[in-house]
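Please check this chain.
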Amino acid sequence: MSLQQINSFAEFQQFEGAELGVSEYHTITQEQINKFADATLDHQWIHLDQERAKAETPFGNTIAHGYLTVSLLPYLWGQIVAIGNLKMQVNYGIEELRFNQAVTVNSQVRLRAKLISLKNLRGIAKAQLEVNMEIKDQPKPAFTGIITFLYHFNS
């Protein structure tokens, strides 16, 4: 699916109830996991110690932090939709987030997004998106949830 270009509330509203698209795949590397561990001070061995993870976990390798996968939302969302004519975009919330499957190192993930609702809050567009982070060649997604963004379009 190609990148959707949206420049106004009215253009965005046309997609309500529809799948907006799917991002490209992104490979989760050990270097990315290590940097995320340093940034968040979460150095649990299941993320960092590959030999121990291979020997002691059911995953057979290190796994990405769940919140690392969530942190990829803006990057992958930007591959699905290009929102133009904006003063500002704000992350507003995440609801019903469920981590369904661990993402092992070197897995490829992508985002699938559907616009479930769009509301006009006194000139601010409140977009609620159903999101699924898919793992290549896996039947279960890494996570599912509903994210909310606020878009302040220029007049």
